[in-house]
Specification:
Elements: E1 6-10, H1 21-32, E2 37-41, H2 47-54, E3 60-61, E4 67-68, E5 73-76, E6 83-86, H3 88-98, H4 114-127, H5 133-143, H6 146-160, H7 164-167, H8 171-193, H9 209-224, H10 229-235, H11 240-248
Parallel strand pairs: 1-2
Antiparallel strand pairs: 1-5, 3-4, 5-6
Bound molecules: glutathione and 2-acetamido-2-deoxy-beta-D-glucopyranose.
Glutathione binds at residues 20-22, 44, 47, 59, 70-72, 87-88.
Length: 255
């Protein structure tokens, strides 16, 4: 049996699958590259203490100067010294650099595409991800482990000064908010249609960093909210996102 040298840190849920878009982004990459890895499941409550004890760097600094630790993170013991990595895009860039595909047409983020990818990530973060909380907060909460529910409620309510239940939009406001999100997805589908050639993904049949980002987001919506978010998303843009997920499904296994 191969010794697992790559340890991938992901966040558990009460489901059999994770629901973090950022950890999915890296898991898709590991699966696409067919790398052997093991998952270390770390509840959000423990991210800081676990990362500190393992020597994984923080991903940002809070306004009060304290370092912030987030997942995904990855330790690669293949080499000496091992690599200790955090932050999804740098992890993916490391994996590309360290384990390049011999077939260059399968590259996830060739150096020449980095600026375009950065623009794509910025766009998705602002037009979609940042809009999700008012319609997704209770779905996200429901799928967390009991300990993480406590932690999520405390931090989110402190940050926004409202009960989780009051962050959630209801009725007409909720439907209008979903319409805005639909508009952002429709725009993506419109630009994706301008590409000629086979394949449902961003650059064709093979995965790119853009697909890891968008795919991670879609997987999070599908698993966190199969009955609301995914029902909506799967009906948008002439069912584009159903075809997209089918194309992605080769790389969505959770070992
Ligand atoms: N820039 C980071 C963001 C990662 C991030 O925000 N991860 C979330 C889960 S999706 C997290 O770790 N949250 C835990 C926390 O905020 O304590 C990346 O792309 O990896
Ligand atoms: C996708 O990858 C395959 C190898 O798996 C390669 O033969 C093919 O050329 C790639 N397609 C494109 C459009 O890059």
């Amino acid at each position: 049996m191969a010794v697992t040298k790559i340890i991938f840190l992901d966040i558990p849920t009460v489901l059999s699958v994770p629901t973090s878009p950022n950890t999915w982004k890296v898991r898709l990459t590991l699966n696409y590259k067919e790398l052997t890895y093991g998952t270390k499941w770390v509840e959000t409550t423990d991210i800081e203490s676990v990362c500190k004890s393992l020597g994984i760097p923080p991903t940002s600094v809070l306004t009060d100067g304290t370092p912030k630790y987030t997942l995904p993170a990855l330790i690669d013991n293949t080499f000496t010294p091992p690599a200790f990595l955090s932050d999804s895009t740098p992890i993916i860039e490391y994996l590309e650099r360290t384990y390049p595909d011999p077939d260059s047409s399968r590259a996830l983020c060739p150096p020449a595409s980095r600026a375009l990818h950065a623009l794509f990530e910025y766009h998705v973060a602002h037009s979609i991800t940042a809009q999700l909380l008012p319609v997704m907060v209770m779905h996200m909460y429901d799928k967390k482990t009991p300990r993480d529910q406590v932690h999520f409620r405390e931090r989110t309510e402190a940050a926004l000064g409202k009960k989780l239940e009051d962050i959630e939009l209801k009725g007409k406001e909720r439907e209008e908010h979903w319409k805005k999100i639909e508009g952002a997805f429709d725009l993506l589908e419109t630009v994706m249609r301008t590409r000629s050639g086979a394949g449902e993904l961003f650059t064709g049949p093979n995965l790119s960093l853009a697909d890891c980002t968008l795919g991670g987001l879609l997987l999070a919506l599908r698993y966190d909210s199969p009955d609301e978010a995914w029902m909506k998303v799967s009906s948008w843009s002439d069912r584009k996102w159903i075809r997209y997920m089918a194309a992605l499904s080769k790389w969505t296994a959770v070992e």
